[in-house]
What does this fold into?
Amino acid sequence: MRAFERPEQERQKLISREKEASLPFWLVRFSFALGVVGVIGFFLAFFYQTVLNRLGLPYRQAQAIAILVVFIAWVIFMLACRHLGISTRGLTYPKLMSILRNEVETPPDEFKASRKQIAAAFGSLSDDWLLFPDVFADDPTQVLPMVLLGPGGVFAIRVNYQDPRSKGFEDPAVSLLAGNAALEKRLGVPVKPILAFTRHTKHYQNRYEQVKVFTFPDALAYITSREAVLDAHQRRQVERTLAELANLPRGLIE
It folds into this structure.
């Protein structure tokens, strides 16, 4: 199977290139490295306390020095960020990494992650099968995270990560069906919607007969069991339309 993705776009800079080359931003990165050294030193002092005691340096004193190093690194980091106008409110690991890379923090792409899972699970499919990235991405009410095309037809696939028993569960089959219907109109061929689960489906109550609910292995078995319904010419036409709907660069699927 061949899986397509749109080229990575250059991420927006958190601060200007001029500020990135300045001493305060160098201090931001230096303070992070200094803090890592302090943390490592703290744990090494515990594991090598016997050696330190023999050298005349009590391990607790060594740990106190390591904590001081971490504190100094934190103060430098905060002051440098404040000088550069970088917000550290609600600092998390992803936000910290975005600061160090000088990039605006972007939320994780759940759809892209689900496509990677499906591509790995469906790796046994031949190269006659193509996996396209999200279609109708500008409309959350009918976005399709991925579309699979092959001799056995066209399949709109969405992976569910929510617990169907949770109070805030929103059935992804609703938007899957809406996108499926819109895609059928654009392609002029039947599209089969599949709602996939990573583990089991026993807690999910399927209210829609059109939607096939499977685990990854069962979804693969269902797809491979389908008889060929599209010839090479039909698939080529559908490929072009899907590439356009997925905003893929021209010539990517040639």
